[in-house]
Amino acid sequence: MSDKTCTILLVEDNHDHIELIRRAITIGPLKADIYISTDGEDALNFVFKTGKYKKAKRVPTPDLILLDIKLPKVDGYNVLQSIRAHTAYRSIPIIILTTSAREEDIERMLQYGADSYIIKPSQYHEFVAIYEKIENYWKQHIAT
Amino acid sequence: MDEQVLSPKVDINREITELRREIDRLKFEIERKAKQLNVKDEEIQKYVYTVSHELKTPIISMKGFTSLLLSFHEESLDEEVKDYLRRIDRNLQQMEQLINDLLEYARVQIEKEKFEAVNFQTIIEKALSEFQYQLDKKSIQIEIMDELPFVCCQQSLMVRVFTNLISNGIKYSRKGKKPEIEIGYSADEIFHKFYVKDNGIGFPSNQRDRLFQMFSRLGNKKGVGGTGVGLAIVKRIVEGHGGEIWANSHKGKGATFFFTLPKLPEMT
Question: Which of A40, A73, B156, B238 is 20 to 30 A from B246 in CA distance terms?
Fold first, then answer.
């Protein structure tokens, strides 16, 4: 495991789900700094360093974004499209958080440019699966 | 009789014209009502879909935290607390299953533009792939008639019909007896007729009307999972294709599910 710390932007408006996903990320040895945005507009401002983040001292560019779809202000699909359309930030890996394992929903998310998706955890094996997925992403795409 | 024969030709023609107008008016009225019904149906589907998704959000939270406690804090919990948490978890699972089934029922959309002529052999093979594990382990036996027809239908939904009927036959098998399922076919001039027969516990014949109702489980086998939506989905698909479904059984002697599909679905 790399000693580097993974910067994750978690975009989720439900505080219980934030806690569950945060817990899943911290199951294993992966070092992660987790930043939270509770609506799509704030997430875009964080990534593009605009709005309230424009004058902030240090706003890290996320190594990975975990993105819910149903969000206030700007929904997940629009967040995804805006980031993918931005020349500087289009390559940030984005994993969609979903409650639905429905094929059409997943296909749509991938068409919009998501790298992958994870089902929100509600059982032990799902917590582990989320951790493993993020760890794999970290190893294969980010830490190298 | 004489009056009719002697009626002037012009009167008959006028009558025919009026009848035609009336038929056209009725046709228009039927089409208008059908469109209204379709709009209502779509609205209900959207409503069920949204409500189901909203209901899932708190369930994920409750299940997630219950699972966190049971998985990551097990040592600090006494047996009574663990027992209660497991009960909560079981109930949440059941609730989640109900919502998933409701969602699935709402998702069944008959789309005529997706109808295609499909060999039913292919449809059944696709349905069987869901039972590959049991078939490999020889824990179930499924016999399929050799000659199956091409039928104009929405393939993915028809696969679902067989998946649900086979799954039903396996679920309601007799204790200690290997489930045996037989799939067969016959036809008349207008309809294809399929059947799925099992050697399970069957159901009392006076309960057959309840079989296809939503959330209806006849409750004659302990430990059988499910919410009673599977057969309601089957009925919705078959009727959406212009067919009919029914079942025969004698308690303890297996059940046979029959369904028909029109040979020319556009005529229905």
Answer: B156
Residue A37 falls inside a structural domain: yes
| A1 located within any domain | no
**The pLDDT value given to residue A20:** 92
- The verdict on A15 touching B (C-beta cutoff 8 Å) is no
**Which of B49, B61, B91, B94 to substitute to test the interface with A, most A CBs within 10 Å?**
B61
Contact B60 A20 (CB under 8 A): yes
For residue A134, the domain's CATH number is 3.40.50.2300
CB contact under 8 A, B63 and A124: no
Counted domains in chain A: 1
Please provide the average confidence, as pLDDT, over all residues in chain B: 86
pTM for the complete prediction?
A: 0.68
B12: part of which helix (H) or strand (E)? Answer: helix B9-72
Range of the domain at A103: 6-141
Can you tell me the distance from the alpha carbon of A42 to that of A72, in angstroms, rounded to the nearest whole number? Answer: 10
